[in-house]
Every structure is written in C-alpha cells, then in structure tokens.
Specification:
By secondary structure, this protein is an alpha/beta fold. It is built from 10 helices and 10 strands. It holds the Pfam family ABC_tran.
C-alpha cells in the first residue's frame, strides 16, 4: 500500500484566460495532517475545490488511494472514503445533536431521510451516534437542538456528522473561520484527536493552528506551489515571508 493517499499531477484551472491554479503537484501522505496555505488570491480555495471535485480541472490528474478520480463526482469520491467537511455536512438546526448524527448514519447505510420512520427503527443508530458525539466532545449536548449550540460546538457537530460517513480522509475547508479563541483551541484539539487513524488535508488561514497541527505544509502563491515542508522550514523560507508580507501590503 502506497504511503501517498491523495496526489495531484499538473493540476491546472483556468477561468476565461485567468490561471487560478497553475501546474500544482501535491502528495498527501497517509495518516498525516497536511495544510494548504497561502496569501489571499493564492489559489487555495480553487485548488481545494478541484481536489474535492466541486470544480473540474482544465488539465491534470487527481488520484486517491491509487485510483484516478479526476472525472468522478464529489458524491462518488465520498463513497470511496474521501469526504469534505462543512459543505457536505451542514446540520439541521431544529434537530438535536443526536438526531443530526443519526441522519448522517442513515445516509451512510444507504437509508433514505425518513423523519417519520418509527422510533424503533431510528433508535438502532443511537448507540453509534452517541459514540460519535463523545468522540467530538458533545456528550452533554446530545439532546440540545443544533441551533442552540455555540458556533464552535456546531462545527464539532458537523465533524461528527462527517465522521458518521466513516471517511478514511477528511478535507477541512477553513475549519477555524469566524471562531472565538476558546473555540479555536477546542476544535484544534478535536482535529488532533480525530487524526489518530485518518488523513486530513485542510485549508486554513490561522497560522498558529497550522503550526500546531500540520506534519506537512504546502504554500501556494499566484496559483503555484511556492514551498513545501514542515512549519519550521516553510516559515523561514524567504519566498514565503515575502509572499505573505507582500500580500499584506497589496
């Protein structure tokens, strides 16, 4: 089994003559937390949308677990175990935390969203749902409506619904966006915990979070890979420093 779980070769995306992602080569190793960072306009979001099949590439190939997924849909790659969080797993605000996770478990088993099904049929998912809520630190909020949870705890619930799909690899799109510091610390610890037996690729602006969590960091600038390595390596790279400082004045 290859230690590379997700790979991109010459990944390119053009929009009417503008090259947003330009020949990106990427290797995400199995079992690692890999961060994709870069100044505003670097092409991070476009690259992430290509990898998760929300956008088709102009050129290039994407392989997951040795399988060419370039032409596959986001739903099909989710079935393979490659799941993007926060888009695919929005919670139902008026349902409890337990009910939200239960619905995600139904989906994984191929069951339809039958809210009117008998309590007996639905309750067969309860034990597994409670286990997932415990995994993300939400046991005491089992019967709380999602709309009543704090922003950070809503994010934790979204991660629980994503984990219900039993992904081998999680793609997290700016998991700390809009969070207060206490929530950032809680979700950072949660991501660290759930990464124990999974691979994670994340786009994240918060560099202290990136420094804390990441094994490998790929820095994009103007659609190209500028640098790659651990945090100590990339943070001291003069090209990276210049890209961030330049962007700050732009």
């Amino acid at each position: 089994m290859s230690d590379v779980i997700l790979a991109a070769e010459n990944l390119t995306k053009e929009f009417k003559g503008f090259v947003a992602v330009d020949g990106v080569n990427l290797r995400v190793r199995r079992g690692q937390i890999h961060a994709l960072i870069g100044p505003n306009g670097a092409g991070k979001t476009t690259c992430f949308n290509l990898l998760t099949k929300f956008l088709p590439p102009t050129r290039g190939t994407i392989t997951y677990d040795g399988k060419d997924i370039t032409a596959m849909s986001s739903a099909d790659i989710a079935r393979l175990g490659l799941v993007r969080s926060f888009q695919i797993s929005a919670v139902f605000p008026h349902l409890t935390a337990l009910e939200n996770v239960r619905i995600a478990l139904q989906r994984r088993r191929g069951d339809s969203f039958d809210f009117w099904r008998s309590q007996k049929i639905l309750s067969r998912f309860d034990e597994e749902a409670r286990g997932l809520l415990a995994e993300v630190g939400l046991s005491e909020f089992t019967n709380t409506a999602a709309s009543e949870l704090s922003y950070g705890r809503k994010r934790a619930l979204e991660i629980a619904t994503t984990l219900a799909l039993n992904p081998e690899m999680l793609l997290l799109d700016e998991p700390m966006a809009g969070m207060a510091q206490a929530d950032v610390e809680r979700i950072t610890a949660l991501i660290k915990r759930i990464s124990a037996n999974r691979t994670i690729l994340m786009v994240e602006h918060n560099l202290s979070v990136v420094a804390t969590l990441s094994n490998t960091i790929t820095v994009l600038a103007r659609g190209k890979v500028l640098a790659e390595g651990d945090y100590a390596t990339v943070s001291q790279d003069p090209r990276v420093v210049e890209a961030y400082i330049g962007a700050g004045h732009g």
